[in-house]
Write a structure and sequence with these properties.
Helix 2 runs parallel beside helix 3 and helix 5 runs parallel beside helix 7. The protein has ten helices and ten strands. The strands form two sheets. The chain has a five-stranded mixed β-sheet, with helices on both faces. The protein has two domains: 133 residues, Nucleotidyltransferase, domain 5, CATH 3.30.420; 168 residues, Nucleotidyltransferase, domain 5, CATH 3.30.420.40. Strand 9, helix 9 and strand 10 form a beta-alpha-beta unit.
């Protein structure tokens, strides 16, 4: 089954053709990163406008790269939630138009479920059940993936997401957007034990995260050093802050795996590209005899191939939509 998939939840306009949920025939991405760097983050109105400009050529190029025509496609999958509402609407409405004009089934796909599905592309043998750590700019979840479309949230952030904490800390140090990527690079040059940042614990919720206090601690440190006229040791701050965030993520994830008796662990989302997180999760999984899967870095960030992968399993479960489909800014990953 060949699925044409569309992703426009944030600042990447993407389209792909995926066969049977595992084989990527094409993947095209039009990134807006350079433009949003001017503002230190994504400007929703600009993102929506750029999606509207890019979506037609991106979809055409995805079909061309796959050497297929629209008639060769079996279904159309699109990210309908969660994300920036204006950005989502561009992709959803375009997909609805394609579905109407071609008669192809329309498959609504959840953005975070798609991030999890990026691992199906990287590992053909991976199948549920497994426990997944989903970490991105807007989300930090521990999810029990019981089946391809049946999921249960075990833990979540109570405030900021891990990716948001990385980006805001990086911006305070004057690093370009997206800050998390730059912070990871700079951290490799620093001493991760130079500064001791807090590791917040959520009382009575051992699998939940809290990154707000940690983010505030690093911002206050930087501001205090600036006020004293001291040079900001960016490398050491980045390394120490990255270690604190990764410590929190790994500790809660491993505790959840042990408590629930899960032996297969998966990481997904934009922050899953973080080099220290990938290393620590692999090391801790090996110590405990767990199987650990991490997506190829090429599919960690937003793309449409992951949408096509998840869309395939949504279709098999009977999850299709008519032309009343709408974009949703906020939707739990374990929705029914």
């Amino acid at each position: 089954m060949k699925i044409l998939s569309i992703e426009s939840s944030c600042d990447e306009t993407a389209a792909a053709v995926v066969e049977d949920g595992r084989k990527v025939l094409s993947s095209v991405i039009a990134s807006q990163v350079e433009e949003h760097k001017l503002y230190g983050g994504v400007v929703p109105e600009i993102a929506s406008r750029r999606h509207a400009e890019a979506i037609v050529p991106v979809v055409k190029n995805a079909l061309k790269e796959a050497e297929l025509e629209l008639d060769d496609i079996d279904a159309i999958a699109v990210t309908h939630a969660p994300g920036l509402i204006g950005a989502l609407l561009v992709g959803v409405n375009f997909a609805k138009g394609l579905s109407l004009s071609s008669g192809k089934p329309l498959i609504p796909t959840h953005h975070l479920r798609s991030h999890i599905a990026s691992n199906y592309i990287s590992y053909k043998e991976l199948k549920p059940p497994f426990l997944c750590l989903v970490v991105s700019g807007g989300h930090s979840h521990i999810v029990m993936v019981e089946d391809y479309t049946k999921m249960k949230v075990i833990g979540r952030t109570r405030d900021d997401a891990a990716g948001e904490a990385f980006d805001k800390a990086a911006r305070t140090m004057g690093m370009p957007y997206p800050g998390g990527i730059e912070m990871d690079r700079v951290a490799e040059l620093g001493d991760e034990n130079k500064f001791v940042f807090p590791r917040p614990v959520v009382r009575d919720a051992p699998y939940d995260f809290s990154f707000s206090g940690l983010k505030t601690a690093v911002i206050n440190l930087i501001h205090n050093m600036e006020q004293r006229g001291e040079k900001i040791p960016k490398e050491d701050i980045c390394a120490s802050f990255r270690k604190a965030v990764v410590d929190l993520l790994v500790h809660n994830f491993m505790k959840a795996a042990e408590d629930f008796g899960v032996k297969t662990l998966v990481v997904a989302g934009g922050v899953s590209a973080n080099s220290l997180l990938r290393k620590r999760l692999a090391e801790e999984s090996e110590k405990r005899g767990f199987k650990f899967y991490k997506p190829d870095k090429s599919v960690c960030t937003d793309n449409a191939a992951m949408v096509g992968a998840q869309g395939y399993y949504e279709y098999l479960s009977g999850n299709t939509a008519d032309l009343s489909l709408n974009a949703i800014a906020t939707l739990p990953i374990d929705y029914r």
